[in-house]
Write a structure and sequence with these properties.
- The protein has four helices and no strands.
- By secondary structure, it is mainly alpha-helical.
- The chain starts with about 30 loop residues before the first helix and ends in a 14-residue tail after the last helix.
Length: about 140
């Protein structure tokens, strides 16, 4: 006898060529797990900038594919990225004057607060109250 798991015995020849779905692919599918991953990618982008781009791509790919409360989170995530980028560019432009450094700090705090508030609402199973907001979406 072999200790190797052969899988289900009822697989026919047509089914043997299809790979089994992996459990790790669940975070790519539209839904609350995917939105959670995007929030985490956004927060990681403060240290590793490219993760924000990965997050916005995932948000655009999965927006409109799921209904319910998660849809408001995708809108909120997309707007968080673009508004944050706009605020950061304005702050960077003003860094020639000292106020730009202070504004960049304020933008980072705004970005973190928006992500944390979105994460909390997602974990409670609630929609973002005002996903089109320019401030915190409360």
């Amino acid at each position: 006898m072999s200790d190797i798991n052969q899988g289900p015995a009822d697989l026919g020849p047509a089914d043997s060529n299809k790979p089994a779905p992996r459990q790790t692919d669940r975070w790519l599918e539209p839904g609350s797990t995917n939105a959670l991953v995007i929030y985490i990618l956004y927060l990681a982008s403060l240290v590793i900038g490219v993760t924000g781009i990965v997050g916005i791509v995932l948000a655009y790919i999965n927006r409109g594919k799921v209904g319910g409360f998660v849809e408001s989170h995708y809108t909120f995530l997309i707007r968080t990225f673009w508004i944050g980028l706009l605020y950061a560019l304005i702050s960077a432009g003003l860094m020639m004057v000292a106020i730009g450094f202070v504004l960049m700090f304020v933008v980072a705090v705004w970005f973190i607060a928006r992500c944390i508030l979105g994460l909390q609402a997602l974990q409670r199973g609630e929609p973002v109250k005002d996903p089109e907001s320019w401030f915190l979406g409360l």
